[in-house]
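Holo model, 2-acetamido-2-deoxy-beta-D-glucopyranose. Inputs:
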Amino acid sequence: MNRRLLIFVAACVPGSSSTPFIHLLCMPTWTIISPCEKDYDHPMRMYIFRVMQTVYRMLDSSNEPSSVDEGKHIATLGYAMSQEKPGSPDLSSVVIHFRLSTQSVTQFVVTTSPLQFVDMARNICIPVPCDLAVSVIADIDEFVFARSTSFRELNNPGPVEECDLARRIWKQVQAKRYHRRLLQQEVIGDIIDIACLRTRSPRCSICDSNLIHCNSCQVASCESDNCPGSSEPPLTWCSRHEKEVLCFPCLEEWGCTGEIEKCPACKSWCCTRNMSSCNGHPIDIQLIPGLPGSKSVLPNLIVAYAKSERVHSPKRGCCMKCELPGWRNCNSTLCWSKTICPECASGGVACLCQEVWACDLCAEHSPGVVIRCPRCNRPFCSSCSYIDECQECHRAHLCYDCAEEESDVDDGVMMERPKFVASCGSCQAKVCDRCVSDSAFSCSGCSKRLCTSCRMSLCDDCRQWSGSDDEESETSGDTGALDV
Ligand SMILES: *[C@@H]1O[C@H](CO)[C@@H](O)[C@H](O)[C@H]1NC(C)=O
Ligand SMILES: *[C@@H]1O[C@H](CO)[C@@H](O)[C@H](O)[C@H]1NC(C)=O
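Output:
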C-alpha cells in the first residue's frame, strides 16, 4: 500500500497517562491483517497477530481474536519519521493500529516510542507487557527499521508486491541475525576472521552453504546438517508441507503440534501423521481362499482385515520422500496397511513384470491384483500382458505359455477356463461368457459395455456419469487395461 498518509496519531506523553497530545506524523502504513488480505502472507502477519491478541485480551477481551484468519479485525502497520538532524529523517516510532472490521476508526494503537498500548476511545495508555516488548515488538521494530531504509525500492507496490518486498527484507534481517548468532555462540570465532563476515550474505559464514529460511517467519539456518551453524532443532521439511521449510514454532502454528519426528532415512523432521507406518500383518484371516468370481470377497476381506489381530502395533517407517530398505507398498487398494515393514512383507508376491507387488493376503484374496495362471500358478498382473482374466469375475485363462501347450492338457483346469466373449468399451478389458449377460455392466447413458473400474468414472463417449452403486464399488485395485 505504501500510502503516505498524513495522519494524526494521538500518543500519550510518557509518564503521564491521562493527557494525550497530538503529533503530526508522516507515516507509510500497510494493512497486515484484514478480512480480505488472508492470502498475501506478510512476514509480519503472525507477529502483528500476537500483539493484537495481547492488546484485545488486556483492553477488550470480548473481542480477543482466536486465530489470525478469523477475519474480524483490521490491523495496519506503519511508522513515523522524525527529523532531528539534517539529512534523511529517522524512524521515530513503529505504529500499529487495530480496529474491528465493523468499526471505521482505530480502536487501539501500539507505539514503540513511547512503548505503550493506547485505547483511543477511553483515552488511556498502558505499558506494553515486557515479554511481548522484548520478543514480538522487537522483531516488528527490526522489520520496520529495515523496511523504512529500503523505502524507495518500490513505488506504490500493490499488496502482493509489498508482501514480496517485505519477505525479502525480512529474509535479509534473518540472514544478518544468523551471522550474529554465530558470533554470539562463538561458533565461528576461531574458524574465520570476523572481519570477513558478510553480514547480509545469503550464504553460511562457516561452510559457504546456502542459508535456508523458514517459509513462515524466515528464520535462517545453514542448509548443511553437518555445519555447526545449522540450527538445533533444525528447520524441517514436513512431508505434509512438501515445499515448505518450516521452523518448529511455525510448524506448531501450522497445526503439526508436538507430533514431529525425525525421518530415519533423510533425517529431516516430519509431521508424525505423514510418516509411513506398517499396521502389522493380520493374523488368522479366515476366507475361502482365492475363490474366483466370488463377489462377496471384497467386503469380507475389508472386514476380516479390520477385525483381525495384528502381529505388531503400528510401526513407524519414514517420511514420504524416502524409502526404507525392505519396506513395500501393496498394490491392492484394499490392503491392511499403506506401507508394509520388511517382516510383514516377507510373504508377498511380485508379478512377472515386477510392476505389481502384493502382500501375501491381498495376492490371494484381493481380486485382479495378482493374476495366477490356473495351471502353472505363476503370478502375473494385467501389465504383464501374459494372461487374460475376466475383468468382472476375475477368472483367469491359462497364461500364454500354458495356452501354447494346450493340446496336451486335459486336466480339470480346462473346464474352469473362461471364454472371453466381449470387452470393456472403454479400457478393452475382457469379459467372460458368464458375466456378459449381466445388464448392469453397461453405461447408463449410451449403453456401452463397461467393466467394473470404468463404470466408476465418466463414460468417454457420452460423458455421462455412469458410477454404479452396486456392492462392488471398491475395486479400483483392478484398473489395468488388458492389452488384447
Ligand atoms: C498428511 O496427513 C494429513 C492428515 O492425515 C493428510 O490430510 C495429508 O493429505 C497428508 N499429506 C500428504 C502429503 O499425504
Ligand atoms: C503398483 O505400485 C507401485 C508403487 O506403489 C506403482 O509404481 C505401480 O504403478 C503400481 N502398479 C499398478 C499396475 O498399479
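Residues 1-25, 467-484 have pLDDT under 50 and may be disordered. The radius of gyration is 33 Å.
Archived with the compound record.
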